[in-house]
Amino acid sequence: xxxxxIELRPEGLYCxxxxxxxxxxxxxxxxxxxxxxxxxxxxxxEKYLSNTLAxxxxxxRLGNITLQTIDYGEIIRHRGVRVSLYPAGHILxxxxxxxxxxxETWVVSGDYKVENDNIHQSFEPIQCDTxxxxxxxxxxxxxxxxxxxxxxxxxxxxxxxxxxxxxxILFCYxxxxxxxxxxxxxxxxxxxxxxxxxxxxxxxxxxxxxxxPQTYMVTQITDKVAxxxxxxxxxxxxSRTNWLKRFGHFxxxxxxxxxxxxxxxRIKSIxxxxxxxxxxxxxxxxxxxxxxxxxxxIVTHGYSEIFARYLNEQGFDAQxxxxxxxxxxxxxxxxxxxxxxx
Length: 342
Known about the structure:
Layout: E1 6-9, E2 12-15, E3 20-22, E4 30-32, E5 47-51, H1 55-62, E6 67-70, E7 75-78, E8 81-87, E9 95-101, E10 104-108, E11 130-135, H2 147-163, E12 167-171, H3 177-182, E13 192-194, H4 199-207, H5 224-228, E14 231-234, E15 250-255, H6 262-268, E16 272-274, H7 282-292, E17 296-302, H8 304-313, E18 317-320
Parallel strand pairs: 3-4, 4-5, 5-6, 10-11, 11-17, 12-14, 12-15, 13-14, 15-16, 17-18
Antiparallel strand pairs: 1-2, 2-3, 7-8, 8-9, 9-10
């Protein structure tokens, strides 16, 4: 009979044999963190384990924590359980957690995307018996265009605004999405301004060896014409502040997978919506699941009930875990009216 290596407890996903939690939403003695977004990495745990690349972001977000880091593919043994981390392709240092115990292999994906974005380490499918997957965009309507297509759309929008001396303001999540967007921008169009919530994360990325174009704080650009040709990266919460008044005439946009639904663009009262997500789309979720060769799938946050039902219809043994990931906390694809930390 199959043993359940991971179970759902009030504190979060719990490895019974190893006595540790994965991305717990309450303080616990030992937490393995898949990535540094605040719905997955929370304060108050006694000890943390993460991928090495996530270290500085976790310190910035959680403060002076007791943190052990390991490289991708490195194996540690804890209470007889083999634990290793593998790239999830989501943000800097994001990882899938592979757990091996008594002949069983489980993988907890955290959040992931399968498209290579050229700055984060690409998603790596891991063979396992049970795969715990997110389902943030687990509906057939969510199908992403190639990144190169969205890149052209964004740069053309910026170029058109600059030709009319109109500042381009692009709202995006500060950790992961902003840096991905930076890598896509055509710097010949004008200067790039980063909001104060984004620039410290840019610096952490640069310190890990990620090449990003030069960015400025808005106070560093004193030339009115230069500012009119600038592209400004800002967190969604900045849309509700007086910070925007300094830009005068501007056009605004939001980069998120939620922009797949046109109605959201009208509701948010923004000029443009660019469909760029750091989560797998419908096809990406299905391809990732198939590549694991897992015979049992556990679906977490997102359209979990719908997605699990579809998987069962396709012959998988699928069930759901009701987690608190994404609830009342910011994430990289939050709609513009959600509370996003600045």
